[in-house]
């Protein structure tokens, strides 16, 4: 299984220039903010939109080639597409929706495939209902069954959980992972949610303004984003402009502190970052990059506390902070009664050196 994409499409705010190869049986995640070109890339692969130039090749079949004048219609591409808002036909039953892409087969073959897909998404008793009679989660599963029914060579998932509440999103994510485990084609999964893409996809492609910023295994991209835009898109909450002071020393201009690095600094490095969960709070400044810090304010989530910290001197007001750290609540209970300033350690091995 292999998908090769190398396309350009001129859009009002930027030019989409996407080139990548997908060969893994696991899902490839397209991660980026709204308007970055993720959905447009899927639509070009599916044949819903036409690039201005380039090529799209799926399993050695040319779907699109601008120079050769090839542009297969959607129905001939063997592509399954799960739209963000499902796009079910409200006047057709669930079974008829799933059968829609199976026209041309025998009635027995269609009935067999519909039954199999309904069982796969755990809706075996819902074939005679209509989409308006279903919950949002059930509609999503019907849309997934419809996309898989023609046995496509590639499955395109465009923000499939965005319209669902948190509990339902979690349940359907597990359902999707089980369904994909028995699907033997390629899968592209579009999301702007890092944690969602990280759970579903072993490989990531990060897009910003129509450009591929990073591609590869998810952990490598998370640990070594290399570019400022990739660090931002992968959820890094602490970023500062830097001034190089030595091969392994920098001044973090927005944090007002000097830091040692593990990796050598390059002239192209313009920013330093550290992820919010990477801070530690020693009782003594016995390690490099240990700074005095004052707690400015906190915010709480079900499992963690976010600590907003000012380095070097007490804060003037609630907006006067440098860093955001996230700690589990058991750590917070050990920290909260310590006299201030606390010591906060920015591990040199956890610093992200970033290019623009």
Write the layout of secondary structure elements.
Blueprint: E1 3-10, E2 15-22, E3 28-31, H1 38-46, E4 53-58, E5 61-65, E6 70-71, E7 79-82, H2 94-99, H3 107-120, H4 136-148, E8 154-158, H5 166-181, E9 186-191, H6 194-200, E10 203-208, E11 211-217, H7 218-223, H8 228-233, E12 238-246, E13 249-252, E14 257-260, E15 271-274, E16 290-300, E17 304-311, E18 323-328, H9 329-335, E19 342-345, E20 352-354
Parallel strand pairs: 3-9, 3-10, 7-8, 8-9
Antiparallel strand pairs: 1-2, 1-4, 4-5, 5-6, 10-11, 12-13, 12-15, 13-14, 15-20, 16-17, 16-19, 17-18
Helix pairs in contact: 3-4
Characterise this structure:
Helices cover 24% and strands 32% of the residues. The chain is built from nine helices and 20 strands. The chain has a six-stranded mixed β-sheet with strand order 7-8-9-3-10-11, sandwiched between helices. A hairpin with a 4-residue loop joins β5 and β6. The longest helix has 16 residues. It is elongated and about 75 Å long. The model has no long low-confidence stretch (mean pLDDT 92).
User: Helical residue percent?
Assistant: 10-25%
**Outline:** elongated
Low-confidence stretches: none
Ends: how far apart?
A: 35 Å
Element pattern in H and E? EEEHEEEEHHHEHEHEEHHEEEEEEEHEE
Number of E strands: 20
Largest sheet: 6 strands, mixed
- Based on CA atoms alone, the radius of gyration comes out at 25 Å
Sheet-strand content, in percent, reads 25-35%
Content-based structural category: alpha+beta
- For the biggest β-sheet, the strand order reads 7-8-9-3-10-11
Mean pLDDT: 92
Tally of helical segments: 9
